[in-house]
Amino acid sequence: RKEVEQDPGPFNVPEGATVAFNCTYSNSASQSFFWYRQDCRKEPKLLMSVYSSGNEDGRFTAQLNRASQYISLLIRDSKLSDSATYLCVVNILHGSSNTGKLIFGQGTTLQVKP
Amino acid sequence: DTAVSQTPKYLVTQMGNDKSIKCEQNLGHDTMYWYKQDSKKFLKIMFSYNNKELIINETVPNRFSPKSPDKAHLNLHINSLELGDSAVYFCASSQDEQRTLSDTQYFGPGTRLTVL
After folding, report:
1. Could you give the CA distance from residue A94 to residue A31 in angstroms, rounded to a whole number?
2. Confidence check: pLDDT of A101 > 80
3. Which of A46, A52, A65, B41 is 20 to 30 A from B15 via CA?
C-alpha cells in the first residue's frame, strides 16, 4: 500500500466549477500535511499547509481528518490557471533528532476547460 | 536571483557514464534535499543534508553520492549510470529540518536526466 494515495485523475472541469481532491495516508505518525502544486515540466510549489481545524486561502479550502487519515482540497470557481497536478504531502518525523521527511502522493491532475 | 538553482537543466548520457548535478540555494537555509521523480510522477526523497551533515539517506544505490561543500550547495554525483536512473532530479531547501508546519521546502527547477 502506498504511503500517500491520491486518485491520479485527470479531473476535467469547466471554468467556474467546484472540484474536490481527496488523499489518504497510511502512517498514523504523520505530523503535518500540505498540498503542493506542480505545473507540467516544472518544480512542485507549496500551495497551502493543512491545519488540524481546516483552513482556507481564497478559493482553496483544505481539510484534515486525523482519525480517518484523510486530507482534502476544495477548489471553488475554477480558473484556467488552476490546471496543474496537485500533490498531497505528509511529513513524518523520524530519527533521534526528529528530522522531517516529506512523503508525496502521486498527484491528481486537474484540467480546467473554457 | 533564483532561490534554488540546478545545473544542468537537461542531461543526456550513455549507460555506464559518471555524471554530476549541481544545486545551489541563496535563501540562507540550513537544510537541502535531493528528490527523484520517475516516469510515473512519484516524487521520492533520496538524501537530506543539514549544515553539510547527512541526515536522511533513503534506500538509494551507492552509485549515488551527494556532497555538500557548504550549506548553500548540495551536489549529486552518479556513477555507472543505468537506464533506470532516467528521471527528473529535484533539489530543494528548507530553513530547518522540516520539523514544523511552517517550514516550507523550496524546489529547484529540476534536472531531466536521460540515460541511453
Report:
1. 10
2. yes
3. B41
C-alpha–C-alpha distance, residues A59 and B76, integer Å: 39
Euclidean distance between CA atoms B6 and A104, whole angstroms: 21
Q: Are B91 and B106 in contact (CB under 8 A)?
A: no
Residue whose C-alpha is closest to residue B30's, from B70, B57, B62? B70
In chain B, % of residues over pLDDT 90: 76
Cα distance between residue A92 and residue A51, in whole Å: 15
Q: What is the pLDDT of residues B19-54, one digit of tens each?
A: 999 999 999 999 999 999 998 888 999 999 988 888
Of the candidates A44, A100, A107, the beta carbon closest to that of B97 is on: A100
CA distance B98 to B100: 6
Top residue of B9, B34, B94, B105 to mutate, by most chain A CBs within 10 Å, is: B105
